[in-house]
Every structure is written in structure tokens, then in C-alpha cells.
């Protein structure tokens, strides 16, 4: 590989990391209030367990404050920049790798690229997701952690969960990214507005990006949601003596959730919030990423 090719690859990776990180931060901040109430619902927080989505948000503001809707978002930003940056950039890399192996129009290659990108991002950032979940689960006046650093050191010292990677539970969630990517690419071929070499020859109008990204995300999350609930219960298992039973492993936790609360109030608890957040979150993520790609002239991939 020539020096020029190496420089182009380095420039591409840096710009792609930046575009992906910014896209992830924008999308997660957009839905941060819904994310917090979803965590409180999923883990059956005693202060908010019998409320609906909007009444729950209203009670958070009344009981705590308006800023409490964004509790844990600081840890989320620390996590989401490397997560989204790694996910988007590795997706670009894996797409080229699998395209060479299986062909550029092979759907299996695209599915493998999306799954591999999700797994790579999870591998690097899972501990931060645990920290963020525990901070978001806290209620004002009943805090166990004072901040990100205190949460990290306490979790590692008390139960070791910071170093425990529940790969199987989390890796099921990469289906979401794979479905989202597939759905988005299909709609691109139907609703493109004009050609551009920066996006593989196609550019969507912003409303079309919002629609196809949100729809694909909603469909994908419907399949992966029970594993999301399981992951969350395991992350928060050590928050109180009553919930320690949820830290016994993925399968046991999944079965226990079903036995105690059933399907709709257990495995799919908070799913309505997921639908509400899917459209703005996925849409903002992909829209910002595509706009960043155009602004940074990411019109060429990696050269091998």
C-alpha cells in the first residue's frame, strides 16, 4: 500500500469516527428524557412503577427537577461518542471487507457487517453503559453514586460488574443495527432525491431520512427488546437487596422476568417508550451522520 493510500485511509477513519460520534451524541441527547423514564420502568423503580410515559416524565420534573430528565446523560455522552464512532466507522470497514468476500450486493454481507460493527462497539463501551444505567436509575434524595467516577469505582469494588461483559445478552441487540441498516439502504433506492458521490451515488431529502430511519429502527427493536430488558435488569441487579436475584445470568434473568411479570409487564415493559424514541433517535443519528459525511467529503472508503 502506498503512502498516499495510507494517508487517505487515516483521514477517512478520523473523519468517520468524528461523524459517527457526533451523530450518536445528537441522537441520544434528543431522546435522553425518554431513555431515563424507560430505564426506570424496565427495572420497576418503586417511585415510578405504576405511571405512564408522560405522567412519569411529569412526576420526574415535579419530584426532582427539569434537569433530572437528563440524569445519566453525562455518562451517556462519555459512552456514546466512542460507541457510535466505533459502530459507524467499523460498519464502513466491515462493509468493504464482506463486499470483497461475498459481493457488493450480497445481503448476508450487509447483515454480517452490521452485526460485526455492533459487536465491536459493544466490546469497547459496555462498562460505560452499565454506569450510565445506574446513574439514570437513581432518584434524587436516594442516590448511591455521586457521579461517573464514583459509580465506576463503586461498581468495580462492590460487585465487579464493571468488568463483567454480558456478551450474549447485549450481542442480540446488534440485530437492531443490522435491521436498521438494511431498511435504510432499501428505502434509499426508492426515495433518493439527487445523486452525490459522497453517499454512494444517492442522497435522501431530510424528511425521507427521518421516516425510513425511524421505521427501520422501530421494526428492529421489536425483535431485540426482551434482551434489552434482560440486560437492564442485570445491570441494575446490585442496586438493592431485592433485585440481586436478577444478576444470576442471562437465561435465568430472562426466565425470572417472565415468571414474575409476564410478557407485556415484564419482557416488553417500556416498549411503548421505545417506539416513541425510535423515530427521533435513529432518524437523527443517520441524518446527522449522512450530513457529516457530506460536510467532511467522505466520498471514498478505505483502500486495501
UniProtKB/TrEMBL annotation:
Keywords: Membrane, Mitochondrion, Mitochondrion inner membrane, Repeat, Transmembrane, Transport
Bilayer topology term: Multi-pass membrane protein
GO cellular component annotations of the record: mitochondrial inner membrane
GO biological process: transmembrane transport
Keyword Transcription regulation: no
Coiled coil: none
Keyword Transmembrane listed: yes
Any Pfam family hit: Mito_carr
Each Solcar repeat, start to end: 11-97, 105-199, 208-295
Organism superkingdom: Eukaryota
Intracellular or extracellular location(s): Mitochondrion inner membrane
InterPro entries tied to this protein: GDC-like (IPR002167), MCP (IPR002067), MCP_dom_sf (IPR023395), MCP_transmembrane (IPR018108)
Protein family membership: Belongs to the mitochondrial carrier (TC 2.A.29) family.
Protein name per its UniProtKB record: Mitochondrial carrier protein
Amino acid at each position: 500500500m502506498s503512502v498516499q493510500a495510507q494517508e487517505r485511509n487515516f483521514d477517512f477513519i478520523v473523519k468517520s469516527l468524528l461523524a459517527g460520534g457526533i451523530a450518536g451524541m445528537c441522537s441520544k441527547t434528543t431522546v435522553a428524557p425518554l431513555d431515563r423514564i424507560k430505564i426506570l420502568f424496565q427495572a420497576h423503580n418503586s417511585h415510578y412503577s405504576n405511571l405512564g410515559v408522560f405522567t412519569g416524565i411529569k412526576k420526574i420534573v415535579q419530584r426532582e427537577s427539569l434537569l433530572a430528565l437528563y440524569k445519566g446523560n453525562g455518562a451517556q455522552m462519555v459512552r456514546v461518542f466512542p460507541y457510535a464512532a466505533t459502530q459507524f466507522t467499523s460498519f464502513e470497514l466491515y462493509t468493504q471487507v464482506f463486499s470483497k468476500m461475498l459481493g457488493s450486493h450480497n445481503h448476508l454481507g450487509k447483515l454480517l457487517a452490521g452485526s460485526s460493527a455492533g459487536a465491536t462497539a459493544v466490546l469497547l463501551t459496555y462498562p460505560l453503559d452499565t454506569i450510565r444505567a445506574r446513574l439514570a436509575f437513581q432518584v434524587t434524595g436516594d442516590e448511591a453514586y455521586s457521579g461517573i467516577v464514583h459509580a465506576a469505582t463503586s461498581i468495580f469494588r462492590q460487585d465487579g460488574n464493571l468488568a463483567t461483559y454480558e456478551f450474549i445478552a447485549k450481542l442480540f441487540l446488534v440485530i437492531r443495527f443490522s435491521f436498521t441498516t438494511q431498511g435504510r439502504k432499501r428505502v434509499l433506492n426508492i426515495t433518493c432525491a439527487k445523486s452525490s458521490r459522497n453517499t454512494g451515488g444517492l442522497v435522501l431529502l431530510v424528511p425521507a431520512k427521518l421516516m425510513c430511519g425511524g421505521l427501520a429502527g422501530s421494526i428492529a427493536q421489536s425483535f431485540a427488546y426482551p434482551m434489552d430488558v434482560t440486560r437492564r435488569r442485570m445491570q441494575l441487579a446490585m442496586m438493592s437487596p431485592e433485585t440481586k436475584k436478577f444478576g444470576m445470568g442471562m437465561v435465568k434473568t430472562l426466565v425470572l422476568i417472565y415468571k414474575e411479570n409476564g410478557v407485556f409487564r415484564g419482557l416488553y415493559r417500556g416498549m411503548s417508550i421505545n417506539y416513541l424514541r425510535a423515530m427521533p433517535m435513529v432518524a437523527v443519528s443517520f441524518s446527522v451522520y449522512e450530513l457529516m459525511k457530506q460536510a467532511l467529503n467522505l466520498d471514498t472508503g478505505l483502500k486495501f
